[in-house]
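Worked problem 6 (solution included).
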Amino acid sequence: MRSRWKSMAVGCILGSALLMSRPSLADDAPARQPGVWQKHEYSFVFLGFTSTYSCDGLADKIKVLLIAAGARRDSKSYPGACANGFGTPDKFARAELTFYTLAPSGTDTSGKPVDGVWRPVVLADRSPRELTTGDCELVEQFRNNVLPMFTTRNVEDHTTCVPHQNSGSLISLRFESLTAAPHGPHASVAQPGGS
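Solution. The predicted structure is:
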């Protein structure tokens, strides 16, 4: 009988220790930082060796990258002026972008403040799911030309693109992006890669 009580007592002590060591929901919430939306307009011209996009296909891929990187959901990416028609690959495909990124409120006081959080982003093969190794050069150009318009930190870039082949190419870009905080009592930060 005593050993049974001892076992129950040990179980209660371990159970309460686990409950006490578990962080509260408030501890799980990411720290919020005030920010303001900044509007960007950019004409993206793709120049690659391996993949060729139609202008509408390029616009679709760029929108995926914008949203994954933390741009506001109402981002626009339209096919630019292309020599070839809809759906036809073009060596000089272009897309016209209009999008908003969140910047720390100390940099601009003209907009309405928004609660922001740092969200981890991973760009890799199939993250987001529309991205493949054939998009390697596109990710490189996005990183160089568009990503500087975002507020980012802890950037780790191991992307390597081999011209004229997919074999040996690697998309590996990780960073944290300042994005709008989720709303509601049970809201959580979106998954990495925006997927």
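Discussion: The first helix runs from residue 2 to 21.
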